[in-house]
Amino acid sequence: MTVTIFDHKLSSSTHNIYDVNFFGVCIRTLVTNCPSMVESWISEIKLIHRQKLGRLIVGLDIEHHPNFNYKNEHPVATLQLCVGHRCLIFQVIHAPDIPQCLEDFLLNDKYSFVGVRVDEDAEKLKNDYNLSVGNAIDLRTLAAEQVDVLGMNMKELKQAGLKGLSERVLGKKLEKPKKIQLSNWDNRKLSSHQVQYACLDAFVSFEIARTLEKNPASFMSSSQPRSFILKTHSSTIMKKKATKMTEDISDHVTIHHVNYQSGGSMKSQNWSTGSGSNRATGGSRKDYHCTYCDMDGHYIEGCFFIHGFPPWHRFHGKDVKQKGKKTTAH
After folding, report:
1. One matching Pfam family, short form (predicted)?
2. What superfamily in CATH does domain 3-246 come from?
């Protein structure tokens, strides 16, 4: 199957973890109504992508109970954010409050919040929760720069939805069942189908923008309004990205030791850095590999400096695989 979902079934009333697999790509998804979990997710995103915070792309989408009567509009039920292979589904309708860090995150105009008709989503967030999005960018505007390559005319592009753009840009079919789209998003417990639907809307939005960004020519046009294009389009930035990629490839990190307790909480030893390796002091020598950090094919830089993890990242012992030898990551 091209799309699957795995429910971790955490014993928590405030959050759960799902792994959504989309054509071989695993998106770890946090579903929560808890402000502190949102804070943890944002903190981890900033840590993982700390060298990209000036040009961060964020897939954004919302879901709400269907509005069958224009006089009785339902508020946003879930806010979905996706960066890389990490997705947040914040059940804002059930949250006791909205954390300040989320307000600041959305308002940061250095971040590009992308989606189809994302300006409408931003307007609804503002109307329902007074949440402002600093830099909302419609994917169709980005795609317009490559309309000939995509084999679409401007009329087709203007009418395109996320499903159509996914097929044109990614070459991947995104299923958007009406039954799920029109389901009750106000439910405190979302179904796996709803989680998958919500996650993929945000992830595919992110992935389309990331794919379009690979072609710098599509971001060079000065004729487009500044607010409609990603803000880091210069050839200098592209050269820096290429240099950084080379540095990342050559940067080897060796992880020696991570302790975990049988209850699932994780704690660290004291770490020190030297000559491309990290050494743990104290305790017996064991070699463990954090599957969460390795999900994208590389380790989170500095991850081993912050064990234990943020609360939503604390899984059961089975999520930490023991290695017989030292684990070296790129």
Report:
1. DNA_pol_A_exo1
2. Ribonuclease H-like superfamily/Ribonuclease H (3.30.420.10)
Q: Is 212 helix (H, G, I), strand (E, B) or coil?
A: helix
Relative to beta strand 270-274, strand 288-290 is unpaired
Q: Are 190 and 29 contacting, i.e. CB atoms less than 8 angstroms apart?
A: no
Interval 94-152: pLDDT, tens: 999 999 999 999 999 999 999 999 999 999 999 999 999 999 999 988 887 766 666 66
Bin 282: left if φ > 0, else alpha if -120 < ψ < 50, else beta.
left
Write down the pTM of the prediction.
0.68
DSSP-based three-state secondary structure for 256:
coil
First-residue to last-residue Cα distance in the chain: 29
Residue ranges per domain, the chain?
Answer: 3-246, 251-329
* pLDDT for the residue 247: 41
Residue with tokens 């072609």: 215
| Parts of the chain with a pLDDT under 50 | 216-330
Rounded CA-CA distance 138/122 in Å is 11
* Best CA proximity match to 293, nearest among 306, 275, 277: 306
Beta strands 57-64 and 112-115, pairing class: parallel
Hey, what are 205's tokens?
Answer: 């939005």
Nearest to 304 by CA among 276, 328, 280, 321: 280
Residues 201 and 166: beta-carbon distance below 8 Å: no
Sequence-distant (≥ 6) Cβ neighbours of residue 101 within 8 angstroms: 38, 39, 42, 43
Q: How many DSSP H helices and E strands does the chain contain? A: 9, 16
